[in-house]
Design brief:
globular, mainly alpha
């Protein structure tokens, strides 16, 4: 598990976004390959494309849980998926106090000033931590 957590942080530090990194690391951990990973997660990075939305690491984690617990047919039960996703979001918020990108970084990434503040305060490393922790939480929920 620690190797996958470190891999997600390494992906983030190499230039992938938070959502891409969590999804890519968890998918690889499960042996899932797709040309859609990580591209399906790109717009969720930076608080949903710098719109001050939910943290991309959380959204990458939700997508990772979906590839494990999601359904293929409308008649299939989605309750296990919803339970895992709800628990993940609750655990993340409990640990970090927020689920929103600005709530976690204290920056408005939708503005040039906020993005500059993010850079000036070197918050990339803080987000690498959120990325790693989201990955760890997803892996715990998969046990």
């Amino acid at each position: 598990m620690d190797k996958t957590v470190e891999k997600s942080k390494a992906y983030f530090n190499s230039g992938f976004g938070c959502a891409e990194s969590v999804l890519k690391a968890v998918a690889e951990y499960k042996g899932i390959e797709s040309i859609l990973i990580p591209r399906i997660a790109t717009g969720f990075c930076g608080g949903v494309a710098n719109t001050d939305g939910m943290c991309g690491a959380i959204l990458g984690g939700v997508m990772a849980l979906n590839i494990i617990y999601g359904r293929d047919k409308p008649e299939e039960d989605k309750s296990i998926n919803y339970q895992k996703v709800q628990q993940f979001i609750k655990d993340f918020e409990s640990k970090f106090g927020s689920t929103s990108c600005p709530g976690l970084t204290d920056c408005d990434l939708s503005s040039e000033e906020g993005r500059q503040q993010f850079s000036d305060k070197n918050l990339h490393q803080k987000c690498a931590g959120f990325t790693g922790e989201a990955t760890r939480m997803v892996l715990e929920l998969m046990k």
